[in-house]
Amino acid sequence: MRAARQPSPVTLPPDVRLMNAVSGLLVVAVLVFAAGLALRWVARLPIFAIRAIQVEGDVTRNSAASLRANALPQLSGSFLSMSLKEGRAAFEAVPWVRRAVVQRVWPHKLRVKLEEHEPAAYWETKVEGADSQSDASVERLLVNSFGEVFQANLGDVEDEELPILAGPSGTAGAMLQMWQGLQALSKGLDEKVERLDLSGRGSWRLALERGAVIELGRGSEAEILARYGQFVRSITQITSLNKAPLLSADLRHAEGFAVRLSGISTTPNPVKPGLNGRTKRN
After folding, report:
1. How far is CA 85 from CA 81, 103, 115, 161, in A?
2. What pLDDT was estimated at residue 72?
3. Is the pTM of this model over 0.70?
4. What is the CB neighbour count within 10 angstroms for residue 274?
């Protein structure tokens, strides 16, 4: 008795196999798309609306109520669908906020940790298109302790004795660091550096609290500080000897510095105007 012959397997043509694979992929894609739509629909349900915001960190200049009032209108989506990146940007757009970290707290709360700007100096910058001779041509902003320029209500600054920095765009950090070094050296004069300017050509100039203006010239930070430190050690002897306060100084000379003292003139015969408009000497 012969054994029954096994039927040979049917091999599908390549075109049919390709069609079956494509069909399977399409089914999977449709299911994934439908699941995505369902999740988006669920995420928008009122049950997942943001109902509370917990504010932590620095809130010296912003109350929790003002933060919510300023940031909440900028938030879009629910607890599940809201972009944390957009939420962080909304809080960082609030005045005085330097950095914000936004986290979800299940089921409907946001936790926001804030870091506020700590003002270290005023920043003066020229307004393009304004009359260079008018006060309106200068805009005053703020520099924080990290050397970053930011904009805020100047009336909220508690320390009105902040120094003024004025220089090219992007130099605020270097200028703040230079001011700190100059300020430390100025303690030898019992003075404070009230203003520090940096020209577009890299020349430094400072103004002291009592009004003296000192041209520091150009150079690296180390060179400028060494030059000023030598000046501080010398000028106290000069002012004490002449019993006259310092009006100005120029440290740009290679072999020394030039100073101007109050009440002391290098002109032996002061020039006075005559009655006929001409000048005459004593």
Report:
1. 12, 10, 16, 37
2. 79
3. yes
4. 9
